[in-house]
Design brief:
By secondary structure, the chain is of the alpha+beta class. It has 2 domains: 63 residues, no CATH class; 107 residues, Immunoglobulins (Immunoglobulin-like), CATH 2.60.40. The protein is built from 4 helices and 13 strands. It has a 4-stranded antiparallel β-sheet, with no helix packed on it. β2 and β3 form a beta hairpin. The termini are far apart.
Length: 231
Amino acid sequence: MAKFTPGAIVSELRNKIAATVYTKNRAGASIRNRTTPINRRSVGQTQKRQQLSSLSSGWRALTASQIAGWNAAAPSFPQQDQLGQTIFLTGHQLYVRCNANLILIGASQITDAPTPASFAVLAIGTFTAVASTGVISMAFTPTPVPTGFNLVVKATAPVSAGKSFVGNSAFRFILKEAAAAASPALLTTPYATVWGAITGKAGQKIFVEAYLVEVASGLAGIPVRSSAVIS
């Protein structure tokens, strides 16, 4: 289904209609033919599908009162879509999103809807990657990680230094830092586990994304991003 902003005819259009994809990048709006990628069924893809299936089963196992609670809470958590428009999740979507975050940080899942949480303003400071030593370090504030929260860090594989933007699908989970963990976060080993060592990758660029997750609810704060050329 395509999303659009009404104008004299159509102001902006996103997503796809039949075999045509409508999108926008730094160069402006674009239209391209839809292509169907090969389903390689990677370990990560398989795990994600199993997780979504499990969470959907968990939703069906909730009581009528719990489901009503999630549906009633959903309007309290507005989101932004690709057009920057405010949208609202369904109760089921909110349940899946919160519990997927809790699974990601290794916390217990919840069955009752959360209430809105207050998040500290997260910022990424000095972010460095050194090919000769393989060391990747990311400074962040506030430090340490606030009580009751985990810091989630995702990163991309090394890409061309000329890139200034990457899509959400390029990021993979690297590590989580528990409450009281101090800055900087050392990403060397967990990054190598996911993407391989950066030895010999000097001159390429790595993007990172970080956000806070409340351990009690699975609610996530606004993600922030940074990048560094491997020196």
